[in-house]
């Protein structure tokens, strides 16, 4: 009685692992995989792949899509409405769900340059550069971020994915700022030049005086002083008038309150 020899093929098809069975007494080969709720066996690899195409409704829908490095790529739509791509190289059909990855695999097969595909993690492909045994990850080949171990590579991907998720979270709308107004009073309004004046400014929001807010005082469009309002929402300035002068006060606003229009007082 012969002994069956089972070999798991290195590549899958349609997301299913295919195994090869060889009988030691007859040396007949058959191929096995599982779909449709049961084991499926065919005498050839192409036969098992055609059966899978037929089951998934793909064979009649494969169409030429493009050519990459002289290898033709076909496209189809699976039963869930998602595009998939296949290409024939290295004596086998290869199927992936993203066109750029198909191009990567073709490039690696034709021009390996020492890179070896290892794993897919969080939709990132991990490569190993054989001469140095360092691991890299990226969605394009060759990868640029290099790590000494596979675990370090996966940790870096975790951190990158987490940062992307945080960045993609919707940001809360900022609370609307409260409007403000200023009043300015200059006393006296006239006198014998030069004479001193006292300037009083009040910063108001919704009828309330605002304490500890910076107010700028301008004279003839030139800033001359900046002071915070006191606990009562007022600030006092003093100046000397020698000629015609115009004063105005300005509050720029902060995280809670809007800035306001300057309030002007003209001296004669």
How would you explain this protein's 3D organization?
It is a single chain. The chain is α+β, with helices and mostly antiparallel strands and 268 residues long. Among the domains are: 1-56, no CATH class; 181-267, Immunoglobulins (Immunoglobulin-like), CATH 2.60.40.10. Helix content is 16%, strand content 45%. It is built from 3 helices and 20 strands. It has helices at residues 45-56, 99-110, 150-168, and strands at 4-8, 19-23, 29-35, 38-42, 63-68, 71-77, 83-89, 92-96, 115-121, 124-129, 134-138, 145-147, 181-187, 195-205, 208-209, 214-219, 222-228, 234-241, 245-250, 263-267. Strands 1-2-3-4 form a 4-stranded antiparallel β-sheet, covered by helices on one side. A 4-stranded antiparallel β-sheet has the order 5-6-7-8. It has a 4-stranded antiparallel β-sheet with strand order 9-10-11-12, with helices on one face. The longest helix is centred in the middle third of the chain and has 19 residues, at 150-168. The protein starts with a strand and ends with a strand. 17% of the residues are buried. The mean pLDDT is 80.
């Amino acid at each position: 009685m012969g002994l069956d020899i089972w070999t798991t093929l290195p590549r899958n098809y349609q997301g299913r692992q295919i195994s090869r069975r060889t009988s030691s007494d007859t040396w007949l080969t058959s191929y096995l995989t599982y779909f449709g709720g049961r084991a499926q066996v065919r005498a050839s690899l192409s036969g098992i792949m055609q059966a899978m195409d037929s089951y998934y409704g793909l064979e009649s829908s494969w169409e030429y899509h493009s050519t990459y490095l002289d290898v033709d790529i076909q496209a189809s739509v699976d039963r869930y409405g998602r595009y998939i791509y296949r290409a024939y190289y290295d004596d086998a059909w290869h199927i992936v769900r993203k066109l750029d990855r198909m191009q990567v695999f073709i490039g690696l097969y034709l021009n390996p340059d020492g890179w070896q595909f290892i794993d897919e993690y969080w939709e990132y492909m991990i490569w190993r550069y054989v001469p140095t045994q360092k691991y890299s990850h990226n969605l394009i080949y060759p990868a640029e971020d290099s790590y000494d171990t596979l675990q370090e590579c996966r940790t870096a991907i975790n951190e990158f994915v987490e940062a992307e998720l945080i960045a993609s979270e919707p940001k809360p709308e900022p609370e609307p700022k409260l409007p403000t107004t200023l009043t300015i009073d200059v006393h006296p309004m006239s006198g014998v030049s030069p004479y001193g004046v006292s300037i009083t400014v009040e910063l108001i929001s919704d009828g309330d005086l605002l304490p500890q807010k910076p107010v700028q005082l301008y004279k003839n469009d030139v800033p001359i002083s900046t002071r915070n309002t006191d606990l009562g929402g007022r600030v006092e300035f003093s100046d000397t008038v020698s000629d015609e002068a115009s004063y105005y006060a300005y509050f720029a606003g902060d995280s809670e309150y809007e800035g306001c229009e300057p309030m002007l007082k003209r001296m004669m």
